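Ops channel
N.P.: pipeline sanity check, posting one input/output pair.
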């Protein structure tokens, strides 16, 4: 890759000292295999602890009443950031149901502080969830 078209700042951040910094976060298992776990820019830092939205989303998807979920970080005066989940549900699933479910599966700092039930998640034309829209001020106020 030579760089991003007409984006010299992005290119400088991504290409450094001959390396391509993708922004992906990975873990390696005991057998030496690598697994992509999330994107660095999506990571939420709650009181100094790293929370990977994908990990929280995977737990949310285990709930039988949840159709879709997306997790972002939102500003928090005490912890720096807090976990917020946008959730599309079936039937009569409540935020209390979701809180009780995540409390059994996640450490306290990883549990969503805020849960918003919505009709659908914003997506681009290829179907990818648009976290930037979820993080936007306009969406937060809607």
């Amino acid at each position: 890759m030579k760089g991003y078209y007409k984006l010299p700042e992005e290119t400088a951040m991504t290409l450094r000292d001959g390396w391509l910094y993708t922004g992906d976060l990975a873990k390696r298992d005991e057998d030496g295999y690598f697994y992509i776990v999330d994107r660095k820019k999506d990571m939420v830092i709650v009181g100094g602890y790293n929370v990977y939205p994908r990990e929280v989303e995977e737990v949310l998807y285990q709930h039988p009443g949840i159709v879709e979920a997306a997790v972002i970080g939102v500003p928090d005066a005490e912890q720096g950031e807090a976990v917020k989940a946008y959730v599309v549900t079936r039937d009569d699933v409540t935020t209390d149901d979701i809180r009780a479910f995540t409390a059994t599966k996640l450490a306290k700092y990883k549990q969503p502080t805020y849960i918003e039930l919505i009709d659908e998640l914003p997506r681009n034309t290829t179907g990818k969830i648009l976290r930037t829209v979820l993080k936007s001020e306009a969406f937060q106020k809607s």
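N.P.: looks fine end to end. Residues 43-141 form a domain with the GMP Synthetase; Chain A, domain 3 fold (CATH 3.30.300.30).
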